[in-house]
Amino acid sequence: MDSTPIRYTSTSYLPNTKYQISKMLTHFFILQKVLPRRIQQKYFDLIRRKLLEQINFIKSRASKRTLKNSITRTFFSFSYKRYRFHFGIYIPCEHACAPGSLNPFTWCHSPSPFVMSLNRRACGTHQSEFSRTEINHHLKPVPDSDPGFINSKSSHANHVYDLWQHRWKNDIFSNRLGIRYNVCYAANSSNFVRKHPGAYIYRKHLSNFSFDLSSNPVTKRKQETRFKRHCARVFKNINPTSRTMKEDKLAAGRRFRFLFHESQHIYSPLHHLKFKRFSIGKFLPDPDDYTFNIPYHSLKNSSITPIVGSQPSTSYRPSGANTIPHYLNAEEIAVLGGSLEPLKRTPVYYGYNPVDPSKVDSSYHLQYNPIQPDLPPSIEIRQSNPLDYDSSTANAIGTTLKHYYRRAMLTRQITVWTKDYHKYMKQPPPPPKPSKKKQHHKWKKWMEKHQDYEDFMSKPYAPRPYYPPDYHTDLFGSPSYTSDETKTVEYRPNKRDTLTNSSASSQ
Q1: What's the predicted TM-score (pTM) here?
Q2: Fewer CB within 10 A of the terminal residue: the chain, N end or C end?
């Protein structure tokens, strides 16, 4: 584009800013050969208005007296097809040129792409020097309230010790996810430290999870979407058809330090604070071996018995988190009344598979806290045993525990396909492929479900290869061996025979 200057005549002694920008834009549109006349007339007012706003933004930023590193660009971009233009306000650099340049001892007049507070600016050539001399690298200086504070490991360890000693608790919330939980510091018990020399001194305890969604419906919907996306990222490797899906989710939450349920709590160790490995003659870490306070220095006068691997413990207090000293019977539960959380009752089915009825349902038990063993025990809920629960369910459907998971999976898949059939197949056949995009999406979704149902319906009635009498094929097409014992358990005298009734499925 030709850069020859052009002269415009004005009757005013000093033309205003809008007039000057209008003439410069007209001069630009006359000389360029990319933008057609239609685009020039359409975006002329927009570009002029943004240039006027850019002048106000630059003045506001340059006049600020705070020493911050926020910047305001002196230009903006305008794109048309594959062409890009930059419209901006000329702000000279005004840095002293180097003595070795062509114009020594002069000021730099190159345009500056940004402006900062206190009218700080620099062009591309002087930005490295500008970063060394003008940028504020101490936005958060160390407060002078405690001039004797030494930034060291011992100081931080003493600070964490004080937080643990005073039972400090902090309320953490996330406006992005709409959640809230509490964080506090916990120390490992003496039994754990004796069994694991060199263990972590402290752990962060994350608990009391709750949702704190916004009252704005739009913000609430965004928070729920982000939280579900985070859950999907944490639980992406979990099998949705697994019987232990809840336990798998809790394990994934502990692994990724992620809270998603109200009854969940997580311990996260502090990796930078560990105990030193002490000798066998010492039962607890010696406080004299450390340059900072440790939680167990106040227990050095306590009577602690050495641990012998072959000798059972005679202490009445539990030493681990999984020790269950006492179950609550029906009379004790009745005395407590409505203060306990109601338990879900599951019917017990007896049959071929052995079942312990006391382990099918959940039950209450007294649990001591291993972190604070001197406190009275709390009432906890013991979940049902998965093996007894599956055995009871296998007796209900009349099969063995070995074939229970396969038949449960088959029943679940048939149920899902049946629901899809009643949801999509009740409608009349779809019309020809529509032209509108929204209707095309519905038509395509209907056809996919229709094809899935046809594939499913063709499998049970399709011709099957011959297998010996002891084998059969399941829904997924793989042969499965059925023993005589399983045949006896699964025998149905009133079930139709597939040899005489050809329309019945062999499943």
Answers
A1: 0.37
A2: N
C-alpha distances in Å from residue 395, one per residue of 66, 349, 350, 462, 482: 76, 6, 6, 31, 17
Residue 111, phi then psi, degrees to nearest 5 = -70, 145
Q: Where are the alpha helices (DSSP H) in 305-400?
A: 330-336, 386-397
| Cα(110)–Cα(243) distance, integer angstroms | 70
Q: Report yes or no: 108 and 94 within 8 Å, Cβ to Cβ.
A: yes
386 has pLDDT over 70: yes
Give the pLDDT confidence of 238-295 residue by residue, as tens digits. Answer: 887 776 788 888 888 888 999 988 888 899 998 888 888 766 556 667 777 888 888 8
Q: What is the rounded CA–CA span in Å between residue 472 and residue 466?
A: 9
Domain segments of the chain as ranges:
17-133, 156-299, 326-393, 399-489
Query: Facing residues of 274 across strands?
Result: 200
Of 264, 243, 244, the residue nearest 254 (C-alpha): 264
- Torsion on CA atoms 148, 151, 152, 158, rounded to nearest 10: 60
Tell me the C-alpha distance between 244 and 253, whole Å. Answer: 14
At which residue do the structure tokens 């629901």 appear? 419
pLDDT interval class at 313 (50, 70, 90): very low
Residue 319, sorted as left (phi over 0), alpha (psi -120 to 50) or beta, turns out to be alpha
Q: Which residues contact 120 (CB under 8 A, 6 or more apart)?
A: 130, 134
Looking at the predicted structure, is the pLDDT value of residue 305 above 80?
A: no
Give the Cα separation of 332 and 39 in Å (integer): 84
Of the pLDDT bands very low, low, confident and very high (cuts 50, 70, 90), residue 106 is confident
DSSP-derived secondary structure for 440-456: HHHHHHHHHHHHHHHHH
C-alpha distances out from residue 204 to 149, 187, 254, Å: 24, 9, 12
- What is the number of alpha carbons within 13 Å of residue 333 lying toward its C-beta? 15
Angstrom distance (rounded) from CA 228 to CA 208: 19
